[in-house]
What does this fold into?
Amino acid sequence: MFGFEEIKKSFLTSLWFMFLTFPIMVIRVNTVQNIVEWRWERMFMIGIGSFFLSFLWRYLLERKELGQKKADLGEVDSIPWNRRIAREPRFYIPALIAICVFVLVFPFTFSLYQTTIMITALIYVITGLGLNIVVGLAGLLDLGYVAFYAVGAYSYALLNYHFGLGFWTVLPIGAGMGLIFGILLGFPVLRLKGDYLAIVTLGFGEIIRLVLENWNDFSFGPSGIANIPRPGLFGIQMSLHQATIYLYFVMIFLVLVTIFVVRRLQDSRIGRAWIALREDEVACQAMGIDKTWTKLSAFAMGATWAGMAGVVFAAKTTFINPASFTLWESIIILCVVVLGGMGSVIGVIFGALTLILLPEYLRAFSEYRLLIFGAVLVVMMVFRPGGIVSPERRIYQFKGTAPDKPKAEASTPG
It folds into this structure.
């Protein structure tokens, strides 16, 4: 229980916060009338707000520690809520039916603007699932992931501009180009890990962006490429609204394919090798797993989905330029994986929908969106470090029967 000591600490925290914000929040110089305005009411509000936030923070930390102690002692069920729901058909079957109905009626019920936002969120779902292979499963920190996204987008734009190739023709080509660039990045960083790997991948992403921005004869520089056609359907002419709905269902199909493939990879032998590499690289190699092939396959598979998502992005916006592929995009995709839950497919989907949809619906707080974004990440990392949906830690058990021991024959004395 909270007592006087906790209240005292929260009170001292509020005083310290009032002192730090005093020059900014209280003093205001009016240059028109040449006077200094003292806004004491703001200091009062900051003091009350910081006191209650500090008190709430301490209370939640104590609850977290108490819950962890009870889970360690076995007094409470330590199984996460998402696993309990997944084990109960009476929960997940109605939920799946409701989600399917919502997905089917969404573009016909909501406006064109809402459908466009949802398409953007689904693109981030694909890129997040691709980065989840590299970061969540293999444990390789990649800060230049947007480079593969740009490779896929420019593959579609340039092949359509020079050769007139359509969306469905370039979609596998864009995925293949992403795979090739993923291997090209994977070779130089085979011996790197941790911060060094993050710095090298960050540099790789910036190199791709600067090349696209300065090589005017190839990528048309900062001017970009316009009039990129949307996905077609057997040559049928569609209006903007019809094309948007069609692209929405194309994205639903691609997301389902991505989820299926990523889950199959996660359960396969290479997926278990990625997880072993993430847990302990030395032990992974000692168990006979080829570390070089495992890292290259992680980079290649992750980049494949980024290249495919880049093709869809170019088809959606019908215009691309290097400004669309900055470092901030890589950070957003990484935050999708971390916030949703590294290694969790459902978590990445929740993370993408949360980070992309909520800012659009909170435009009234547009000046404070980055502040809210940072606060949410801090709270999540403190109270749910595993993400919104923490991945299930799998345990493999051998259930074979031991061979029968031969019975000793009894001997009688002669």
